Amino acid sequence: MIFQATFCHFLEKDAYGNEVTREARPLPVEYLLVDVPVSTPLEPVFTFAAGSHKPFPVENRPIDGHLQDVSALASYLNQFSRHRFIDAASDFHFLIYIATMDMLPLMESMDPLLEAIRSKDAALANEWASGDQWSTVLQLLAHADQMSTTGQPMEEGTAGDATGTPWTCLHCTFINMPNLSSCVLRVSDDVTLGWAEYMDEALMVGEILR
């Protein structure tokens, strides 16, 4: 199709096989039709079957209460036995999170896990979970849990107590001063500042915890 100024033209073959330019008035409907091949299996097999457990939060839905963070990951994993890791891993949103999480993205090492889920091989999934990458994630979760015991996690907007104990942010796990009502590292729901920008604040919290 050829566009010239405000006119639209198209090429077609005439009765003698020659390509001739026609003015598209009206525009031929054939140029607006697109073939979209669609097929469905006769017997569909679902990779991610819904179970009785609480599913992992959906990404990009904080307004609906779907918050993906370290706390949500720990709560989700606590529903499953470590010997049945494949049950926990068979959740699409869980896989997206561990593949792209900030603290330790596992995208490059997930091929064996994805194959285990596809073939429903629990032994292969357990083997992957015993590897260094996932073991590191579990250690980080355990460390975050220990940090939360020094101060009770508190929702932002809750009034702090100047004489109380430091509290841990539910979103980023940073330990804040007791008199603060919002986490110093979180500017908004979508922006979390770096640790270096509030090093003085962290040192003050460390002095309190000693």
From TrEMBL:
Residues 10-141 form the Nuclear pore localisation protein NPL4 C-terminal domain. This is Nuclear pore localisation protein NPL4 C-terminal domain-containing protein. InterPro entries: Npl4, NPL4_C. The lineage of its organism: Eukaryota, Metazoa, Ecdysozoa, Arthropoda, Crustacea.
